[in-house]
Amino acid sequence: MGTVIAFDIGDRRIGVAVSDPGQSFAIPSDTYFRTGNFSEDVEACAKIALRQGAECIVCGLPLSEDGSESVQSGKARRFAEALGKATALPVKLEDERYTTCAARSDLIALGVSAKQDKKKKRIDSHAAAYILENYLLNIRSENMKEEQTGYEEEDNIVELIDDSGEKYRYEHLMTFEYEGEWYCAMTPALPAEEEGEDDEDEGEDVVIFKIVGDEENEHLEIIEDDELLDKLFDEFNRIWDEDEEEDGE
């Protein structure tokens, strides 16, 4: 047990919330206004986490409405990874869909006027509190879910639904940009008891989707151009190898 801190990561602002040491509830804290410098923003949030005495960090993961990855998902994952390296603390990702709407509704119920300059700041910290509350609830039921599904709970496991309504579980590997377009690399998720089998085939089941649509309605699209796929796999492997080298330094 110990304090957990949550960040609602936006392009302009980052909401902050903290838990009590017993991890029973979440408290809206503050809002950090981004400088436009990625490294400075990461360092500032790392200092906030350490100052709060956090033993774990939770970052909101902005998924599309259908649960698929988005451009914002990739940005959040990149920030969370950098934050973990800067603090040496475990970093968890938590679905943040609808948290901003819920926070806005709470403030309206409290009588906060839309004309108040500080409303956006309060929305961000309240959204972070919702993210943290969801995380705290999820970790309490994690063992039960693992027993029922046979899958280990992981932050990078997503469930995709095709046009016919069929559901598939994938492990997110990377969201990356190539020639002005955004793509998402995944691999099929295995039940816990099957993990570790056929390790020699690792990497052969990587699937790359194109992220299409606007920010409010993004979805994943299958790529049928074999030549483009070859280039995307080359880019995926290049980025993957660079990350492996950095982790080994």
Structure description:
With 249 residues, this protein is an alpha+beta fold. It has 2 domains: 4-149, 2-Layer Sandwich (Nucleotidyltransferase, domain 5); 157-248, no CATH class. It is 39% helix and 27% strand. The chain is built from 5 helices and 10 strands, in the order βββαβαβααβββββα. The protein has helices spanning 38-51, 71-87, 99-109, 119-149, 226-248, and strands at 4-9, 13-19, 26-33, 56-61, 91-95, 157-161, 167-178, 181-188, 207-212, 219-222. The strands form 2 sheets. It has a 5-stranded mixed sheet with strand order 3-2-1-4-5, with helices on both faces. Strands 6-7-8-9-10 form a 5-stranded antiparallel sheet. Strand 1 (4-9) and strand 2 (13-19) form a beta hairpin. Helix 1 packs across helix 2 and helix 3 crosses helix 4. The longest helix has 31 residues, at 119-149. The protein is globular.
Using the CA coordinates, give the radius of gyration.
19 Å
Question: Termini separation (Å)?
Answer: 31 Å
Portion in helices:
25-40%
SS strand fraction = 25-35%
Instruction: Tell me the structural class.
Output: alpha+beta
Spatially, the strands of the biggest sheet line up as 3-2-1-4-5
Which parts are unreliable, with pLDDT below 50 for 5 consecutive residues or more? 100-115, 198-203
CATH topology of the largest domain: Nucleotidyltransferase, domain 5
Number of domains: 2
- One letter per element, helices H and strands E, the order comes to EEEHEHEHHEEEEEH
Residue-averaged pLDDT, rounded? 79
**CATH-defined superfamily of the largest domain:** YqgF/RNase H-like domain
CATH architecture grouping of the largest domain: 2-Layer Sandwich
According to DSSP, the number of beta strands is: 10
**Oligomeric status:** single chain
What's the shape?
Answer: globular
Tally of separate helices: 5
Task: Characterize the main sheet.
Answer: 5 strands, mixed
| CATH class assignment of the largest domain | Alpha Beta
